């Protein structure tokens, strides 16, 4: 697995109080795992924007907002009040993105390119 960020880098960007010391290693591991799941190019040196994105994701991971438990199957809610009724169904893998995830995605956008295109390099 590629290591995009370290605890020291996150401490430098967010301050050493971004989470408790005992949560930092796992949060950074989760952030690196999250970044590795993205189709990022191979870097000789990780760009500052990618490091910042990793720090944002580490903060979300430390807060328990990343890789949460999910329910399997389809869930459904129905409410009826008199003649009015409302029904909603949610996919089992549907979840809201946190503000940190949205910010990280924006920071990574220049490096992700267009997923439907293949880079061609001619010798």
Compact summary:
It contains four helices and two strands, in the order αααββα.
Description:
It is extended, with a radius of gyration of 19 Å. 43% of the residues lie in helices and 11% in strands. The chain starts with 6 loop residues before the first helix and ends in an 11-residue tail after the last helix. A two-stranded antiparallel sheet has the order 1-2. The longest helix is centred in the first third of the chain and has 16 residues, at 21-36. Helix 1 crosses helix 3, helix 2 crosses helix 3 and helix 3 packs antiparallel against helix 4. With 123 residues, it is α+β, with helices and mostly antiparallel strands. A hairpin with a 2-residue loop joins strand 1 and strand 2 (84-90). The chain has a domain at 7-69 and 98-112. It has 4 helices and 2 strands. It has helices at 7-14, 21-36, 48-62, 99-112; strands at residues 75-81, 84-90.
């Amino acid at each position: 697995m590629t290591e995009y960020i370290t605890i020291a880098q996150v401490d430098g960007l967010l301050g050493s109080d971004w989470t408790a010391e005992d949560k930092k290693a796992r949060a950074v591991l989760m952030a690196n795992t999250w970044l590795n799941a993205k189709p990022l190019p191979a870097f000789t040196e990780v760009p500052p924007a990618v490091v910042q994105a990793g720090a944002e994701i580490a903060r979300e991971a430390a807060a328990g907002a990343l890789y949460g438990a999910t329910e399997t199957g389809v869930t459904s809610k129905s409410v009826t009040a008199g003649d009015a009724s409302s029904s909603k169904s949610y996919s089992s893998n549907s979840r809201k993105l946190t503000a940190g995830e949205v910010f990280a995605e924006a920071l990574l956008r220049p490096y992700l390119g267009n997923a439907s295109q293949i880079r061609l390099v001619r010798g």
